[in-house]
Amino acid sequence: MIAKVGVLLWKDILSELRTKELIFSMLVFSLMVAVIFNFSFPPGSEFIKDASPGILWMTFIFAGLLGMNRSFVYEVDTGCLQGLMLAPMDRSVIYISKLLVNFIFIGTVELIVTPLFAIFFDFSIIDSLGPFLLMLFLSTLGFSVIGTLFSAIAVNTKTREVMLPILHFPVVIPIIICAVQATSAIFQGREWSEIWNWLKILIAFDIIFLILAILMFEYVIEE
């Protein structure tokens, strides 16, 4: 199973390296949001410091939706999805490979954009780099778990570009709240115990929805 996931993962990564469509679109969108908000408030404004965790995560979420919306579109448009479904492997292999692809692409954009946000909004994460990376990993994983499943649902609808956000946002509200609160606690240098309380919710969310998504994907992809 691991070998099959690796083959599909390499196929998607190689395809993206050739076109660079997803990475560039997500990066350009994220940078535009950062620049717009940077010039929307006076330099050194207290409001922008308080709002920076929310702005950061809304940027990641919308940029991630741009990428996940395309994760199954290429397969459907080229007829490749039918071939994958006919291949002698469990359907969960398709889901796990797409999940890893989305996680890698979104995580790459986050790691590139976060230092630029730190410069624009004047915050530092050097002293709390470990907790921040752990929070980033758990939040991005949960975001990708839900987004990959709903992308498989939305791709077969006529309004697939609109359907994914409509399905996705209500379910990821707990992730957004935990990510923003944990990021705010990290930026303000609060105690680890307060940060850990939010991370525990993220861990539980990731485990529960990952299991549910793997179990449901076979029925979703059939429809």
Residues in helix, %: over 70%
Oligomeric state of shown chains: single chain
User: How many helices does DSSP assign?
Assistant: 9
Biggest sheet record: none
Shape: globular
The rounded Rg comes to 18 Å
Question: How does the helix and strand content classify structurally?
Answer: mainly alpha
N-to-C series of helices and strands? HHHHHHHHH
Secondary structure: number of strands: 0
* Poorly predicted parts: none
Strand content: under 5%
- Average of pLDDT: 83
Provide a descriptive summary of the structure in words:
The chain is mainly α and 223 residues long. The chain has one domain (2-38, 49-222). The chain has nine helices and no strands. α3 (46-68) runs antiparallel to α8 (160-187), α6 packs across α7 and α7 runs parallel beside α9 (192-222). It is globular. The two termini are 23 Å apart.
Blueprint (SSEs and pairs):
Blueprint: H1 2-19, H2 21-40, H3 46-68, H4 73-77, H5 80-86, H6 91-121, H7 129-154, H8 160-187, H9 192-222
Characterize this entry briefly.
This protein is mainly α and 223 residues long. The protein has 9 helices and no strands.
Keywords:
mainly alpha, globular, 223 residues, 0% strand
